[in-house]
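step=encode ok
step=design start
structure_in=
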């Protein structure tokens, strides 16, 4: 498994911003896809963003135009910059790897957006 450690969650007012970080135990250039997912109570886990090892980025429809994923390869870190946050963004956010023959998940970080 790839060890993943998320940070940056917290409580923020609607319209505010947060930046999440995920540090991986492997070079992220060796991981085919790094992803951000979220899960709210009573809902299915939802893909937020994905970054391929080649730098291509995809976003879930609900966050397009508001969230930006990025990476710092020397720091083995991927980021999720979340702007214009809405109460419906409230969820536990997870970092994820896929494409290695198995999936790895971080412990999750809680994001709560108040109205």
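sequence_out=
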């Amino acid at each position: 498994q790839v060890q993943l450690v998320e940070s940056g969650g917290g409580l923020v007012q609607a319209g505010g911003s947060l930046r999440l970080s995920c540090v991986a135990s492997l070079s992220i250039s060796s991981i085919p896809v790094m992803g951000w997912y979220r899960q709210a109570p009573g809902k299915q886990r939802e893909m937020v963003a994905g970054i391929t090892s080649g730098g291509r980025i995809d976003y879930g429809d609900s966050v397009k135009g508001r969230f930006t994923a990025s990476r710092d390869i020397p720091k083995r870190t991927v980021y999720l910059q979340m702007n214009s946050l809405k109460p419906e963004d409230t969820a536990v956010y997870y970092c994820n790897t896929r494409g290695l023959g198995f999936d790895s998940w971080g412990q999750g970080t809680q994001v709560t957006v108040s109205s």
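step=design ok
step=annotate ok -> The mean pLDDT is 97.
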